[in-house]
Design goal:
With 340 residues, the chain is of the alpha/beta class. The chain is 45% helix and 12% strand. The protein has an eight-stranded parallel β-barrel, surrounded by six helices. Flavin mononucleotide binds next to β2 and α11.
Length: 340
């Protein structure tokens, strides 16, 4: 537990005090997508991009199979854990367990609009309960040393004026959250599916930039609709960092291009054959522990999107696992099909 004075000290400087992380580039938490196998794969495209887990419900961590839910390969680092929940005590306990597993940050989901999540009172509907979110942040910060961050939207339903977002940021920042990831569109809690909620409400980056102008001491990361290097570089003029979701998943080479711009002029995107060899080796270890080959190859289907032979690659992988292939040599076979 941190002392009160330590907490006050930390909260003045932001919770990045303990572990400074570079947040210019991150990959979004995506349920069913950014599992450990996906993260191992994405890590090959940038040694520094900050990766997030899928949202994991705090209660599941307290009651479920922790190794299954939280285990990951050290090669994935740096990895942040995203939690779902709204019970401060449960979140604090789940955060502490996550920290023991080695996650470098604990993030609270205040952006997911699904019905299932709303009925459990967490996700985006928590934007209407800033005091509760503040309590959650406070409780988590007393139980971990790593940064506690919040991922949010710019509003919900008809509460999408800047004043609403400001009140939320005010309250939660006062609880010691120094880093906000802002998905720059509002969530419509009734009437739109989660998928539509990532496409229909218009993007409004200006809102996130305004937060950065009004709270220069906070670290602000923008998320939503970013697909190209120039788009991302432009965001860095206004905010501290960027988070990519779907584009990183479907086109992981964008991470290499961004890594080069952000961190290392001399960085070269990994050779496809080297990526496939690393993944084949990884898959051999995982399959030996009972993981289905498909759980790994499914994340790799987009690797060659836009390049000649991409369809052969996808088809060889999909047909292979559909006919029950278990040998990771399927990956080499798919690479030959790509080039063939
Ligand atoms: C399949 C999928 C699952 C998602 N699951 C989560 C989640 O678990 N937690 C979360 O905060 N956001 C989740 N999101 C939203 C993303 O984190 C991100 O905010 C959104 O996709 C917008 O970014 P993008 O336009 O770069 O994809 C998910 C998005 C997708 C596509």
């Amino acid at each position: 537990m941190k002392s009160e004075s330590q907490l006050a000290f930390d909260s003045k400087l932001g919770s990045d005090l303990v572990v400074p992380l570079d947040r210019r580039l991150s990959v979004a938490p995506m349920m069913d997508w950014t599992d450990r196998h996906c993260r191992f794969f994405l890590r090959l495209f940038s040694p520094r991009v900050l990766l997030y887990t899928e949202m994991i419900v705090a209660n599941a961590i307290l009651r479920g199979d922790r190794d299954y839910l939280l285990g990951f390969d050290p090669a994935e680092h740096p990895v942040a854990l995203q939690l779902g929940g709204s019970d401060p005590a449960m979140l604090a306990e789940a955060a502490a367990i996550g920290e023991q597993f080695g996650y470098v940050e604990v993030n609270l989901n205040v952006g997911c609009p699904s019905d299932r999540v709303q009925s459990a009172t967490f996700g985006a509907c928590l934007m209407a309960r800033p005091r509760l979110v503040a309590d959650c942040v406070r409780a988590m910060r007393t139980s971990v040393r790593v940064p506690v961050t919040v991922k949010t939207r710019i509003g919900i339903d008809d509460r999408d004026d800047y004043g609403f977002l400001r009140e939320f940021i005010d309250e939660v920042a006062a609880a010691g959250c120094g880093v906000f990831i802002i998905h720059a569109r509002k969530a419509v809690l009734r009437g739109l599916s989660p998928k539509e909620n990532r496409e229909v409400p218009p993007l409004n980056y200006e809102r996130a930039w305004q937060v950065k102008r009004d709270y220069p001491q906070l670290t602000i990361v923008v998320n939503g609709g970013l697909r190209t290097v120039p788009q991302v570089v432009d965001q860095w003029q206004h905010v501290d960092g960027t988070m990519l979701g779907r584009e990183a998943y479907h086109n992981p080479y964008v991470l290499s291009a961004l890594h080069r711009v952000a961190y290392d002029d001399d960085f070269h995107a990994p050779d496809p054959a080297a990526v496939v060899a690393r993944m084949q080796d990884y898959a051999s270890r995982q399959v030996a522990q009972g993981v289905p080959l498909r759980a790994i190859t499914r994340h790799m289907l987009g690797m060659f999107n836009g390049r000649a032979g991409a369809r052969n690659w996808r088809r060889t992988l999909s047909e292979g696992v559909n006919r029950g292939a278990t040998s990771p040599a399927l990956l080499s076979e798919a690479l030959r099909a790509l080039n063939g």
